[in-house]
Specification:
single chain, 281 residues, alpha+beta, six-stranded mixed sheet
Length: 281
C-alpha cells in the first residue's frame, strides 16, 4: 500500500482530532477535486448548488469539501489532489473555531492591545489567533484583519502556542462591522495588462458602460460574493483586457466595488490574477 504524502499524513492526524481538512496547492489555493475545477476554473468557490459556475453535482473543493472522514481523504478520487498538495487547509467553523487572521505586524500589535489572549500560530506575514466558537467569516474587517470561521478555510501552520479561549464579544462585534473600502490605485499593486492588441472599442462610452455594469453586478450580489467578483473580473478582462483600454482608474473602481462587499485587497488581487491566468494573459 502506498505511503501517504506528507500533507495527507497531517490531514489524517487533524481529521482524527475532529478538524475537517482539505488539500491546498501552491498559493494556498484549494486543489480542484474534479475536472471542472482544474486550475481554479470555477473561480475557487465550492459548489453549493446555488452559487458559483461549478457544475459538479456535489461540493468538490474548498471549505465545503473539508472532511474528517479518513475513507474520503484516502479515496482514489482524492489521490490526485493530495499528490498536488503542498499544504493542508481546514474549515474552522466545522471544528467550532474562529480564526482571526492578522496579516501584518501592525494588525498583530492591534490584536495584542485589543483582543483577549488565546492560542496563536505564526504565519508568513503575521499570526492566526484561534478562539473557541463559530462566527460568520468576514474579510477586511479592519486593515490587515480577516475573520475565518463558517464557510471559509484557513491554512494549517501547526498547533501554535497558548490555550484556546472562548470567542469574545469584541471579535463578534468586529466581524459585524462594515469593511473599510480601500481603493487600489497603482498598477504595480493591481497588475493591468500591457497594451498592444487592436482596440475594438469604437467609443469610450463602450468601456465606461462595461465598467459601470461590472460595478453594478458586484454591488448587487447578495450571496457568493467571491464567485461574483471573480466572474465579473473575468468578463471585464475578456472584453477589454487585451487592447490596453483598461486604466488604473477602471481597475480601482472594480476593486472598490468588491471591497465594499467585504473583499480584502489581497482577495481582489488574487481574483484578478486568477482571471488573467484563466484567459491566458
Amino acid at each position: 500500500m502506498p505511503q501517504p504524502t506528507p500533507p495527507l499524513r497531517v490531514a489524517l492526524t487533524l481529521a482524527t482530532a475532529g478538524v475537517p481538512v482539505l488539500p491546498l496547492r501552491h498559493g494556498k489555493v484549494p486543489v480542484g477535486n474534479c475536472l471542472t475545477c482544474t486550475r481554479n476554473a470555477c473561480g475557487g468557490r465550492p459548489n453549493m448548488k446555488t452559487s458559483g459556475p461549478c457544475a459538479c453535482t456535489a461540493p468538490c473543493h474548498a471549505w465545503a469539501a473539508a472532511t474528517t472522514d479518513p475513507a474520503i481523504l484516502t479515496s482514489p478520487a482524492w489521490t490526485p489532489a493530495w499528490r498536488q498538495a503542498v499544504g493542508v487547509g481546514y474549515h474552522p467553523g466545522g471544528a467550532r473555531l474562529t480564526v482571526v487572521d492578522l496579516d501584518t505586524p501592525d494588525a498583530v500589535v492591534w490584536a495584542q492591545r485589543n483582543l483577549p489572549a488565546t492560542r496563536t500560530v505564526p504565519t508568513t506575514r503575521g499570526q492566526h489567533w484561534i478562539y473557541q466558537g463559530v462566527r460568520s467569516s468576514s474579510n477586511g474587517v479592519r486593515p490587515g484583519v480577516d475573520i475565518k470561521s463558517s464557510m471559509a478555510y484557513a491554512r494549517w501552520l501547526g498547533p501554535g502556542t497558548g490555550i484556546i479561549t472562548a470567542l469574545p464579544d469584541s471579535v463578534r462585534a468586529l466581524a459585524a462591522r462594515k469593511p473599510t473600502v480601500r481603493p487600489v490605485p497603482h498598477a504595480r499593486t493591481v497588475p493591468a495588462l500591457a497594451g498592444g492588441g487592436e482596440c475594438r472599442h469604437r467609443t469610450p462610452a463602450y468601456l465606461e458602460r462595461g465598467i459601470a455594469m461590472a460595478e453594478e453586478r458586484i454591488t448587487e450580489a447578495s450571496s457568493a460574493v467571491h464567485t461574483t467578483v471573480y466572474r465579473t473580473f473575468l468578463a471585464v478582462l475578456s472584453a477589454h483586457g487585451r487592447c490596453g483600454c483598461l486604466t488604473d482608474v477602471h481597475i480601482a473602481r472594480l476593486f472598490t466595488a468588491a471591497q465594499a462587499k467585504g473583499e480584502s485587497p489581497r482577495h481582489c488581487t488574487d481574483a484578478w490574477t486568477n482571471a488573467r491566468t484563466t484567459l491566458g494573459m
